[in-house]
Amino acid sequence: MQQLSGIDATFLYFETPQTPMHVAGLTLYDLPDGFSGSFHEHFSTFFAGRLHLIPIFNKKLARTVLELDHPGWVDVDNVDLAYHIQPATLPKPGTQRQLEELVAELHAKPLDRKRPLWQFTVIEGLESGQVALYSKVHHAAIDGGAGMVITSALYDLTPEPRKVDIPEKKEASEDRVPTIAERAILGTYDVASNVVRQQMKAAEAVPQLLGQALDLVGQMAGASAGSGARVPQFLAPKTPFNTTVGRRRTYAARTVSLVEAKMLGKATGAKINDIVMAICAGALRKYLQETASVPDAPLVAFVPISLREAGNEDLNNQVFGMNCPLATQIEDPLARLKRIVEDSSDIKSTVSGFKDIAPTDFTLIGAPLLLPGLTRLYGTTGLADILPNAVNLCISNTAGPPFPLYCAGAKVTALYPVSIATHGVGLNITVQSYMDKLDFGVTAALRAVPQAERLGDLLVESFEELKAAAMGQAPSANSDAAAAKGASQSKAKSSGSSATKRPRKKTTAKKVAEKE
Predict the structure, then answer these.
(1) Which domain holds residue 449?
(2) Based on CB atoms within 10 Å of each CB, which residue in 161, 169, 206, 503 is the most buried?
């Protein structure tokens, strides 16, 4: 049995029926020339010959004795592809919105822990004539970097699939099965050795951790003394995104030009990550103008940082993260981008030292019993509605292949991410670059973002507005109309009394709760 690391197992412990912890993707394909018949059957036959290239797809969870420590992965003799690769057909006309609604429905369903933790759905019936693949894998098994390993196993560089050698099936092992007593002794030994090992690693990290903490204190002292440095923002303002979530999800997929985003970066001296955050910031500002109100303090995004070294293809989680203010209090898009660049640069320099000593494992005796109980308690008590927040949402940006990919002879046209929404952080915007495009996936809890499709549209409008501002042009008519609408609604809210505003918000919350 291969034991999960503490970080991997945490995604199991944080999972509830309301907060499934799988990550997913929505891939669009152009069918091969002259193709007819069921693409689901075609894909299933194709994938059966690739399954062995992804070891985690042939493993399932196994608990330790008495659940004293993290569970592990064990091999599965026969993977039921009829369960793991499901068919679906959109009702006519098969619009983009219908596709997004189906993805939201599929994404809300947790994976069966008695089976390998992955499942694909081949979706046909799109009015565009394309087919789609919704693929979900539990976050306990992969992060973004490990997801690229799955991509390399699944896809080819030409329409003609490469030949893959299929290994011979191993005969069932006849090794003696250890007795319960032996397993208990072994499990106890593993827990004890893990505890000792983790304590030693923690002790080794103490000097560096103290040094980084002193640097942070020095930065704060310099800021208060007027040195020009800014005090880090430790709390995020309360927004509708920061709520206890229900089981239902909303989803939207949108695309902007990567080529134009890079040109925008050159014109402003910003990196692609900064451009992505600025696009999100502009969209979030407008969305809140239309649906609630824009806080005086900037929204804060949690931004994952990969700890994965070049060439590392381990199928596990190797991530760190930082909290980045989004300057949503600034109206001008270029001034907003400039502040984001400054803030992200400061934060990167602050967390760079912590990144090197970030723990990738931990041992807590009884964690499989204790942590899930605390997670359920957090959800049922509604503490996310009361407690202050460190972040408002998650924004992640993953670099994808700059060249075309093919799957079972079909050309990949888009790689939209589908990610995680959880209690207190009900919105996740994940971006995947592919060829000359940036594909945005907006994943949210229904209670947090009832109109994910509107937020998706605003991402495109925000990009156009930022691009127009950088090029010294007037924003497009759509951007002007959206901005005017948002400003009008914001003005109406600010001019109304608080007594008028509260009933409207309660009515909206009630309607959403009824939908859940």
Answers:
(1) 234-340+381-398+421-515
(2) 161
